[in-house]
Design a protein that fits this description.
The protein is mainly alpha-helical. The protein has helices at residues 28-52, 64-88, 95-119, 129-143, 148-164, 173-176, 193-212, 215-219, 227-237, 239-261. Residues 26-248 form the Heparan-alpha-glucosaminide N-acetyltransferase catalytic domain.
């Protein structure tokens, strides 16, 4: 789960932007928050892998608090997509750069789908966090001209809609990605449009409201200088690479270890 694209000096909105306005200082705090989130993803998947390989007690991944932790990570990333779009495009969407980054994330999402189809065919990822980020980024770019209030209202409606309506017709993989299923099909990572894209719109609305009060100038003063802060900032700037590589690395280490200890 995660947005997850490498940071750049000029962003396109597909991931948390670190420049609030043209010529503004880099918002290191955005990189730091994204780094904390991707670190959480690695920990979350490590526990999942330990249970999968029999190296940990079964049941940890079904613990309600652990499930809540995973959802909080998804919320963080989807919210930061909205932050990104507003900060990256103060004068209108730069479609060329935006399109290149979205294509890259879309390709990564396709790779995840294909890889998990052959690895976990019964629960492959057909609409995970990367797929949701692509959808949310495209919709967010189209809605970017809207004022903060309308974005916040739209986001709120999308977030609460699945609590008000669901139908069996959405239970298949062909339609479950929308978010109105009564029973979701098995998947190792399902992040449907409703409610998660609403979180991105909320991020956009909050960011627009914050910029109207010049909060970005206050946030730009943050500069974490401790080794830990620098480490998380580095991870935030390379979150897509970490997201794509950490599971193959973890499973490549844990599966042989699990087989050895059996």
């Amino acid at each position: 789960m995660a947005t997850l694209a490498p940071a750049a000096s000029r962003d396109d909105g597909a991931h948390p932007q670190t420049h609030a306005r043209a010529g503004a200082p880099r918002l290191q705090i955005v990189d730091l928050v994204r780094g904390l989130a991707i670190a959480g993803v690695v920990i979350f998947h490590l526990v999942w892998d330990l249970e999968l390989t029999g190296l940990a007690l079964q049941g940890a991944n079904s613990n309600p608090w652990w499930i809540l932790f995973g959802r909080s990570l998804a919320t963080s990333f989807m919210f930061l997509v909205g932050v990104s779009l507003v900060l990256a495009h103060p004068n209108g969407v730069r479609w060329k750069a935006f399109g290149k980054r979205i294509a890259m994330i879309g390709l990564a999402a396709l790779v995840i789908t294909v890889a998990t189809y052959f690895t976990f065919p019964q629960a492959f990822i057909f609409f995970g966090i990367l797929h949701a980020i692509v959808f949310a980024s495209l919709l967010g770019a189209l809605l970017l001209p809207l004022p903060a209030l309308l974005l916040t209202l739209a986001g709120t409606v999308i977030v609460i809609a699945p609590e008000l309506y669901a139908a069996d017709m959405f239970n298949s993989r062909w339609l479950a990605w929308i978010g109105f299923s009564t029973i979701s099909p098995p998947s190792n990572d399902l992040v449907p449009v409703f409610p998660w894209v609403g979180v991105t719109l909320l991020g956009m609305g909050v960011t627009k409201a914050a910029l109207a009060k010049s909060w970005d100038r206050t946030l730009s003063r943050f500069s974490g200088t401790s080794p830990l802060s620098r480490a998380f900032t580095f991870m935030g700037r390379h979150s897509l690479a970490i997201y794509l590589l950490h599971q193959p690395v973890l499973l490549g280490l844990l599966i042989p270890l699990g087989n050895l200890l059996r």
